[in-house]
Amino acid sequence: MQSKDTITFHALNEISLKDVKAIERLKPRSEILNLAATTGQLAAHFKDGDTVTDSEDKERLEETMGQLLIGLVRAARVCSLDLCRCIKAKIALNAKKYPVELCKGKAGKYTTYSNETGITKTAGQSTVKDVFDATNDTTDDTVENISAMVSHFVNERNWSQYHTPRNLCLALIGELGELCELFQWAGDNGEGGSSFGLQGWTKDEVDKVGQELADVSIYLLRLASESDVDIGKAAMKIAENSC
């Protein structure tokens, strides 16, 4: 197994999706529902409080988090997206939506700052340029480094005060709900939610999927950090055991 500092999203993608023909039989809607099922297991760990202290419970938490990260990698791949690229693009967009000088220590929505940023519910939200840029190589991006990017974004804005495990878990569930909304009426036959690569979807529509996958991933990485879970190592263990 790779060390904590060298486990990359690319490696997780490659090891968990080796069989190309099997990948192409996977359906986006099924993968999204799989994420929902795993998220339910994750929520169960925090239903009674913020801290998981029992060693066996902690081991199961690590397994669940690893499973969810692998599920996000798979879901992105089935939608013809690079999860790491989506996460980095969303962090960059969020930096524009939440300028440090305006939102430090505050928990307001990005629309509170629309007059200053120009970003509204209908304008300035696209990450298409970054997500579909083939020159944006993420091969060497480690889970540890991306987690550090997320933590840096949070700490710059003094938002860690809001990031208790239960808060983060609920936020993750909320973002997963937004992801599910994109697929709820897509159908299971022909083009739409059952089509590998989201054939027939526009780049803007696929970009929205990528952003919601990124939002879920960002909260998962934060939750892992706050729960003292090495999520890269946990995800690699899940991937290797499933081969």
Layout: helices, strands, pairs:
Elements lengths: L8 H8 L3 H6 L2 H18 L9 H24 L4 H15 L2 H4 L10 H4 L10 H4 L11 H14 L8 H17 L21 H24 L4 H11 L2
Descriptive notes:
By secondary structure, this protein is an all-alpha fold. It is 61% helix and 0% strand. It contains twelve helices and no strands. The chain has helices at residues 9-16, 20-25, 28-45, 55-78, 83-97, 100-103, 114-117, 128-131, 143-156, 165-181, 203-226, 231-241. The protein is globular. The two termini are 14 Å apart.
The biggest sheet amounts to: none
Number of helices: 12
C-alpha Rg, in Å?
Answer: 17 Å
Unreliable runs, pLDDT <50, ≥5 residues?
none
Strand segment count: 0
Strand residues, percent: under 5%
Into which percent range does the helicity of residues fall?
55-70%
Shape: globular
Please provide the ordered H/E string of secondary-structure elements.
Answer: HHHHHHHHHHHH
Average pLDDT number: 91
